[in-house]
# Entry
Amino acid sequence: MESRTRKRASARPALLLGTAKGGFILAEANGAWRLSAPMQFGSKVNDFRLDPRDGRTLLLASNGGHLGPTLYRSVDRGRTWTEATQPPKFAPASRAKRFAGTSRGRAVKTNFWLEPAAPSNPGAWYCGTTPPALFRSDDAGATWRGVDGWNENPSWATWTSGGDSGTPDGSMLHSIVVDPRDPAHLFVGVSSGGVFESRDAGASWAPLNRGVAADFLPPGDHAFGHDPHHVVAHPADPDRLYQQNHCGFYRLDRKKGDAWKRVGRNLPKEIGDVGFGVAVHPTDRDVAWMFPMDGTRLWPRTSPGGRPCVFRTDDGGRTWKRLDRGLPKRDAWFTVMRQALCADDVAEATGVYFGTTSGEVWGSFDRGASWRSLAAHLPRIYSVRVARFR
Amino acid sequence: MAASAQVTVTVGSVLLEYTGGRARLSAAGATVGEALDALDRAHAGFKWRVVDEQGRLRPHMALFVNGAPVRDLKRPLRDGDDVRLLQALSGG
# Structure
C-alpha cells in the first residue's frame, strides 16, 4: 500500500495551461504528452488551477476582452463548466462621489491570479485582479466578495498609483501567498506597487519592500511603488521568500527581518537577473529556478541573445547554474510569463516546466538539467500549473 | 415613472451561451438598462458580461436602438423598439 501511494505521488502531474485563447490540460499517457481540447475556447485565460485540497475542483479565470471577466468551475476534469454566480466585482461608487466627480467607480477588468486558501480552509480561494484588488470565495469559486482591508484601504490609491500605473496590461494584484501554518498570514504582490503583508487575514496591510531596487523611481528609499513580478514562500519553510522583481531577483528570510537581499547579483552579468517567474523545489528551501529575460535598453524581455536558458540555485541564490540542454541554441526570442514557470509539488518528483509566449511547453524531469518540448503551436501561454487529480 | 415598453433585443454570438442559443429575444423595460435587467432575470449572468459593476456598458459592447448608437443605459424605450447588442470584436 505504501509503495502504491509513493508511486502515485511521484507520477508525473498534469499541467494546466492558461492561454490567450482558452485553457488546456496537458497530461502524460503511455509515455506521450497529450493535449486536451481547448476549454472556454476563445477566452483569454490568465490562470487555471486545480484545488490541491480535493484534487478535483478546477477554477479557470476567463477574461474575454469583450465580455466582462468571469470565473468557471469544473469538477469533471473540464468536461463541463459552471460559471460563478457572483464573480469578483467592486461595490458601486457612492452617489456622493459620482456627484462630486471624485470617482466614477472601479470595475474589475481581469481576473488575473487564482490561489487556493490554506489547507485548513477547504473550498476557500483568493483571486487577484486588475485593477489590483483582492477577492475571496468561501464556496469553491461560486461567489466572491472583496477583501475590504485591501480594496477599501485608505492607502490603496497611494500604494497602487490609483490602480493604474500605466503598465501595458494594467496594474495587477498577483502572487497571493497564504502561509500554510497560519491562514491569516498573507502576502500579495502588486505591479508598480510592491509586496504587502497582512497578519490578520487581510484586515490590515503593510508594505514589505526594504532593500528592493526601483530604478524607475527617483533615487532614494521607497516604502512602496516597487514592481514585483512574482513572489513565492517556500512550502517547506514559509519564512523563506523569493521574489522575481522588475529590478532583480531577491530572497527574504522573514524570521530574520524585513530586508530583501538581491541574490540575483550572483547571476552572470551578461545574463542579468530580470525575469517574470520563480519556481521552488517542494522540500529544499535553497533550490529555486528562474528564467532570465533581456532587460537591456528597450527591455525586450525575451530570452537573452535569443538563447533561452533556465538558471537554478541550490544554495538560496549564492550560486547559480545555467541549464539549457535541449533548449534551442539560437533564434528563440520568447518570453516566459510569471505564472508560466513551475516545479513539481511532491518531494519524489523532479519536474520543472515552463510555457512560452510563442505557445510551447517545455519540461525537465531532472531538475532542469535537460529539457524537452511537451507541446507546441499553442496560443500565447500565460500560466502553467501543476495538477494532481485524485 | 415611465411606462414599461415591450422591445425586441438581438444579441451577437458571444452571448448565445446565456440565451439558450437564441439571438432574438423579447424584453420589457422603460429604459435600455431595465430591458437588460429583464434579460438578466431570464438568463442569469447575461448582464455582467455586458455591463460593469458601475452600470457602464463595457467598452467593446455596441448597443443600438432603432439603428442609433446608445451608451447611456437610461435611454427610454418605446413599444416596438429594435435593440441590438453587438460586439465590436477587435484584436488578434
